[in-house]
Amino acid sequence: MNHTIEPNGLLCDLLSRPERTLITNPKPRFSWIVNDTRPNAYQVAYRILVASKLELLAREEGDFWDSGVPEPATVWRSEPRSVDVEYGGKPLHSNSTYHWKVRTWHGVHDESPWSEPQTFHTGELSSTHQTPSVPLAVTTEMPVRFVRLSGDRVFVDFGRAVFGTVELTIEADRESTVEIHLGEVAAGASQIDRAPGGSRRYRMIRVETRAGRDTYRVEIPADPRNTGPIAILMPADLFEVYPFRYCEIVGAPKVFARADIRRLTVHHPFDDAAASFTSSSRVLNDVWEFCRYSMKATSFCGMYVDGDRERIPYEADAYINQLGHYACDRDFTMARRTHEHLITTPTWPTEWHLYSVLVAYNDLMYSGNTTSAVAFYDDLVAKTFSALARVDGLITTDNLTDEIRAAVHFTGKSGVQFPSGIRDIVDWPQVERDGYDMRPVNSVVNALHYRALRAMHEIALAVGNDDDAASFAQRAARVRDAFRTQLLDPDTGLVLDGVGSSHSALHANMFALASGLVPDEYRERVVEFIVSKGTACSVYASQMLLEALYAAGAGDAALALLTATGERSWAHMVYDVGTTIALEAWDDRFKPNQDWNHAWGAAPAAMIARGLMGITPLAPGFEKIRIVPQPGALAWADITVPTIRGPVRVAFNNDGASREGERGFHVELELPGNTTTVVGVPRGPGRSAALIVDGRRVFAREERGTLYVDGIGSGRHSITRC
């Protein structure tokens, strides 16, 4: 029986459908999913063919590149790369069409069938890096509820909000005017709130109809606020969109029916089946789906933007959006295009520049592709803000110069607030700062600076700059030492807001904890303080709050936040507010001008995968995986997360989760080929340091109450705590 299956999931320059756009890279990178039904399957060789005609591929001929049939001796030397393989054939031509396919070897005489071919088109080839844009998708949706009201009025509910427009088929005996009312907020069972306030959307558009039967697409007038010079505009070959769930039609003909109205939804291509999650908590399930859908619904520009009010990319938004998107779909191009736009079109907060480095690091770790990191390496170095450092390594915007602003491409024209200069932000809106004492040497800024230095260390290693990597490691160590000396209060055991401050806000502590700056002897006190504060921060900063708790192993507290139902919770958005896309703030009360379509409010999309289920990459392109679930009081959960190497499935059973001292724990894994995994499970009170791995007893290493077993390969695995 042949256990080796043909590779699938082909990507050309990270594109799953490269035939829909133009490749400008003269040496595109190829990736694929290695398939094998046996456990611990590992690719030891591959053969790629690139041809100018499909007929040549069918004859196993590559007139532009044949990477070669491996000899048995070569196979045993191993070529495990299945991600980011650079084209190595004859020079490609501009404005041409090519086809490629791949097969893999998993041992001598153990080759897979050929993959299905993939087609790509080249544009004008250039050595200048450019991430291709992907054409946006337009999906047609029918109403979930259609109500004919009195007279000529019709109310339509499409079930969830989207960015798009409507298309109507109207049969009339004469010319007339029909009013189309679009809105995000309901006012009663069958009415739109026509004065929702803030940036919540409502608009009326008149459509002039003709005699006879005809179809009309409602044309959305451009909004000067979100179509200005620094906004991301809709593609010229598409139409303007509007965020809405509900539609009222005034002046509808008597014969107008449900089938006569459709919604045209615009979004980045999105695989709804790529990810799944379910658990013993209905609230958590609803929160996950709410956040997953937010990833898709807010992708309407082809870049991550801050909702409909401005349609401007921001670096912190991009960080949250990127990790959430990665957890829900096997797509890397939208995050990368947004990131590269922000490199040269940055916004005003100090921390946002530092987030650019973290986004670049995530791009590397999830995609395994180094082309962007190489192209923007010097820019990333500048965005660590090492040039702002004092002698002790801590940074302050007091040291800003025109040269530093120029190095990070800040012109003052790319931010709506404070366009005259770079400023520390800590949190937004300002009322969410938990009384933070804004000091020139700021602990939140320096925590992110430290994290950016560590990220640049890894990026430098990945692109072969070993000397730089050593330098970044040294700088990070200097910042860590100065931070712990000057920003940790030995009396309280808490992190101070800044040098010279006596105040400890939630933000100072959670950013430091998430960044690895809290020493072990302070950890318990810091975690206790953070837990006591709850969500005393914005929806943006809740990302770092959850990261901090999961980094400290406080999964119980993190789960309590994810499943909370109070005003400052995601369940409040779903059940009480009634939005179907993440809000910009916890509630209108905290930000009266908030919008209802802001993906930075969807942190659980990432943190359920990365924190609760503990799935993160340990090496670029998920070559090595870390899986450390933190179940808290959750009885069971099951998740599938897409990765560039294939889906990762983790399911756990937390038997007796509500009975302290009687907890069992069992994990089922399904891991893609060409990967190795480190798995950790909570030890539990009174338990031995042993695990049953695929039926065999294994003594595990223990670290902070978690039992780890290394070297788990691909396929299905079962791990039970003894």
Describe this structure in words.
The protein has 722 residues and is of the alpha+beta class. It has 4 domains: 4-121, Immunoglobulins (Immunoglobulin-like), CATH 2.60.40.10; 137-267, Galactose-binding domain-like (Jelly Rolls); 349-535, Glycosyltransferase (Alpha/alpha barrel); 622-721, Sandwich (Maltose phosphorylase, domain 3). Helix content is 26%, strand content 24%. The strands form 6 sheets. Strands 8, 9, 10, 11, 12, 13, 14 and 15 form an 8-stranded antiparallel beta sheet that branches. Strand 21 (636-641) and strand 22 form a beta hairpin. Mean pLDDT is 94; it is low at 414-419 and 658-662.
Distance between the termini: 35 Å
CATH architecture of the largest domain: Alpha/alpha barrel
CATH uppermost class of the largest domain: Mainly Alpha
Biggest sheet architecture: 8 strands, antiparallel
Please work out how many helical segments DSSP would assign: 17
Shape: globular
Give Rg in angstroms: 27 Å
Our estimate of the beta-strand percent is 15-25%
Query: What's the total count of β strands?
Result: 29
Q: State the share of residues found in helices, binned by percent.
A: 25-40%
- Count of the domains: 4
The secondary structure category is alpha+beta
